[in-house]
Design a protein that fits this description.
Elements: H1 3-34, H2 43-59, H3 63-76, H4 87-106, E1 124-127, H5 131-143, E2 148-150, H6 154-163, E3 168-172, H7 181-190, E4 199-202, H8 209-217, E5 220-224, H9 230-239, E6 250-254, H10 258-270, E7 274-278, H11 284-291, E8 295-299, E9 301-302, E10 305-306, H12 307-315, E11 325-329, H13 334-342, E12 347-350, H14 355-377, H15 387-404, E13 408-415, H16 418-425, H17 427-444, E14 450-455, E15 458-464, H18 468-484, E16 487-489, E17 492-494, E18 498-504, H19 510-526, E19 532-534
Parallel strand pairs: 1-2, 1-3, 3-4, 4-5, 6-7, 6-8, 8-11, 11-12, 18-19
Antiparallel strand pairs: 9-10, 13-15, 13-18, 14-15, 16-17
Helix pairs in contact: 1-2, 1-4, 2-3, 3-4, 5-9, 9-17, 16-17
C-alpha cells in the first residue's frame, strides 16, 4: 500500500468516527424532540455527546462538523440545567441540528451511502376520512423531510395534539362522519393552545361561504374545494411549516453619539436583529461593503455632514438604491422632516426614540424591502434565485473561495424528458414538477448553498467549501431519492429523473466554470441521463 492510499484509508477512518459521533448527537436530539416533558433529563447527555463531536472534528480537521457542533454547544449553554426547553431556543437548536445533519451528509464516508435522517421540529398531522389518500400524503411528505401522522378519529387527533403541538393540521371539514365535525374538532383544539395551529381544510361536499367562514375563524389558512391532489397539498404544507426560518434583519446604525448608538444596538439585538453601529460618517462606505445592511438608520445632524448628505451618497450606489433609510432627529418641524425624506429617506423618527415604535418601523420597512428584493432576484414559479442573481452569487463565492483558499463547486441540473411531461400531462403538472424539485433541493442542501432556476427546466446550485467528490455524493443521493418520488397527475402517477454536471473552481472566471458544468451536464445526457458527471 503506497503513502497516498494509506492517507486515504486513515482519512476515511477518521471521517467514520466523526460521522458516527454526529449520529449520536442527532439521535440524542431526537429523544429531546419527541418527548419534551423529559427533555431536561437528556440535556447533559446531549451536551456531552456534542462536546465529544467537537473534539473529534477539531482533531481530524473536519471543519463543518466542528462549527456546527460548536454552535450547538453555545446554544446548550443558554439552556438552564433542569429547566424546560423554550420554543425560541428549540428553533435555534433545530437549525443548528439541520446544519450538522447536512455536514454529515456532505462529508459522509465514500463507501457508506447511509445518510443521517433529518428531522423536522414537529410533525404534520393528517385527519382525513380517505385513509388511502392519507397514506399517500405521508409517503410523499417523508420524501420532503417531514414527519407526518394520520388519525382515524377526532379523539386520537385531540390526544396527539395534547402531547405534541403539530406544525400544521390537514383536516377534512367532515372528519368524524357528520357535517362540519372536522371544524368542530379544530375549534376545540385551538382553545387549548396560546398560539393557533395553521390549519388546511379540505372538502369534497361543501364549499359554501358559511362553511368557509367557520373554517377561517378557527385558524383555517387554506380551504380546498373540491379536494386537490397531493402535490398541491404538500406545497401548502411546506408554506405553513417553519422549515425556512426567517433571518434576522441586518440594521446599520450611524449616530455620532456613541451612547445613543449603543442604546440603539441594545434595543435592536433584544428584538432579535443583527446590528452594526458606527459613529464616524466617513466610515459609511466601508460599513456598507462589509456589513451589507438591509435597513439603515441615520442621525440627521452630525459634525461635518448631515444624514441627508449621507443618504444621497448611499443612493448613488445601485445595490443600495432600494435599502430603506430611517432618519433620527429631535427635529419636530414636519415640513423639514418631509424635505429630509425627499432627499433619499423613507421614514423619520423623533428623538427620544420609543423602542416599540422603532422596532415596528423596522419590521414594516424590512418586510416590504424583502418582498421587493424577492421580486427582483427570485423566480416567480419556484421561489429560487433567478438566472442573473445566481451568476452574481457565483461571482461572490469565487471571491470568497479565493480569499479563504476553500474549494467551490457549481452544479447544473436538467430534468430529463421534461417536454414529454408537459405534452403528456399538461403545463400545470410540469410546473408542479419544477416546484417539487425546487422544494426537494431546498430540503436537502445546506443554508450556505445557493439554488437557482437557470432557465426552463434547468437548475443551478452553488456549493461553497465543497470538494467535487462530496458534491457528487450529495447530488447523487438527491438524484436517486427524487427519481423515487411519485408525481401525481389526477388519478395517475409518474416518476421524473434529472441529469447533472458539476464543475469545481480552478482559479477561473464564473463564465468558464458555468461552461464546464454545462459540458459535464451534456455528458450526463449522452451517457443515458439520470446520472451525475464531474467536469474534467
Amino acid at each position: 500500500m503506497n503513502d497516498e492510499s494509506q492517507k486515504e484509508k486513515l482519512r476515511q477512518h477518521f471521517a467514520r468516527r466523526v460521522t458516527t459521533q454526529a449520529r449520536v448527537v442527532l439521535d440524542t436530539w431526537q429523544k429531546i424532540h419527541e418527548d419534551r416533558e423529559k427533555a431536561a433529563a437528556h440535556r447533559a447527555e446531549f451536551s456531552a455527546a456534542t462536546d465529544k463531536l467537537v473534539r473529534y472534528a477539531q482533531r481530524f480537521e473536519m471543519v463543518s462538523h466542528a462549527e456546527a457542533g460548536q454552535t450547538i454547544l453555545e446554544l446548550i449553554n443558554h439552556w438552564e440545567a433542569g429547566s424546560a426547553l423554550d420554543e425560541t431556543l428549540e428553533r435555534k437548536l433545530q437549525d443548528a441540528i439541520e446544519s450538522l445533519s447536512q455536514s454529515t451528509l456532505r462529508r459522509t464516508d465514500r463507501n457508506n451511502s447511509e445518510v443521517p435522517h433529518q428531522f423536522r421540529r414537529t410533525p404534520v398531522y393528517i385527519a382525513l376520512a380517505n385513509q388511502e389518500m392519507a397514506g399517500r400524503l405521508i409517503r410523499q411528505l417523508e420524501f420532503f423531510g417531514f414527519r407526518a401522522s394520520a388519525f382515524a378519529s377526532a379523539e386520537d387527533l385531540t390526544e396527539a395534539c395534547a402531547l405534541h403541538k403539530p406544525e400544521t393540521i390537514l383536516v377534512d371539514v367532515n372528519f368524524g362522519g357528520t357535517p362540519n365535525a372536522g371544524i368542530a374538532t379544530i375549534e376545540h383544539l385551538q382553545e387549548r393552545h396560546d398560539t393557533p395551529i395553521p390549519i388546511i381544510f379540505m372538502s369534497d361536499e361543501d364549499g359554501s361561504i358559511e362553511t368557509r367562514l367557520q373554517a377561517s375563524r378557527c385558524g383555517g389558512e387554506e380551504f380546498f374545494y373540491p379536494a386537490v391532489d397531493p402535490g398541491q397539498l404538500i406545497e401548502k404544507i411546506e408554506t405553513y411549516t417553519h422549515g425556512n426560518t426567517v433571518e434576522p434583519y441586518k440594521v446599520l446604525v450611524l449616530d455620532d453619539s456613541r451612547a445613543q448608538a449603543k442604546y440603539m444596538e441594545t434595543v435592536l439585538k433584544k428584538a432579535g436583529m443583527t446590528a452594526h453601529i458606527i459613529t464616524d460618517p466617513m466610515q459609511i462606505i466601508h460599513a456598507l461593503e462589509e456589513f451589507s445592511p438591509e435597513i439603515i438608520i441615520l442621525d440627521m445632524y452630525m459634525p461635518g455632514c448631515t444624514g441627508m448628505e449621507i443618504a444621497r451618497v448611499i443612493r448613488q450606489q445601485d445595490r443600495f438604491h432600494s435599502v430603506p433609510i430611517i432618519y433620527l432627529s429631535a427635529e419636530e418641524d414636519v415640513s423639514k422632516q418631509l424635505h429630509a425624506m425627499s432627499l433619499g429617506g423613507d421614514d423619520f423618527l423623533t428623538k427620544p426614540i420609543d423602542p416599540k415604535h422603532l422596532i415596528a418601523t423596522i419590521h414594516n420597512r424590512g418586510r416590504r424591502a424583502r418582498s421587493l428584493l424577492a421580486l427582483m432576484i427570485r423566480d416567480s414559479l419556484t421561489g429560487l434565485f433567478n438566472h442573473t442573481h445566481t451568476l452574481h452569487l457565483l461571482d461572490q463565492e469565487i471571491v470568497r473561495a479565493r480569499q479563504k483558499d476553500q474549494p467551490l463547486c457549481f452544479a447544473m441540473i436538467d430534468i430529463d424528458y421534461f417536454k414529454k411531461v408537459n405534452d403528456t400531462f399538461g403545463h400545470p403538472i410540469g410546473d408542479r414538477v419544477l416546484r417539487s424539485l425546487s422544494m426537494f433541493l431546498k430540503q436537502r442542501l445546506r443554508k450556505t448553498d445557493h439554488i437557482g432556476r437557470y432557465g426552463g427546466e434547468e437548475f443551478a446550485i452553488i456549493l461553497p467549501n465543497t470538494r467535487p467528490s462530496d458534491a457528487r455524493n450529495v447530488l447523487n443521493e438527491i438524484r436517486e431519492r427524487f427519481s423515487e418520488l411519485q408525481q401525481p397527475a389526477g388519478d395517475r402517477e409518474f416518476h421524473v429523473t434529472f441529469s447533472c454536471g458539476i464543475a469545481d473552481w480552478n482559479e477561473e472566471t464564473s463564465q468558464a466554470m458555468c461552461e464546464r458544468a454545462d459540458r459535464a451536464l451534456y455528458t450526463s445526457k449522452e451517457l443515458g441521463r439520470n446520472c451525475v458527471t464531474l467536469a474534467d
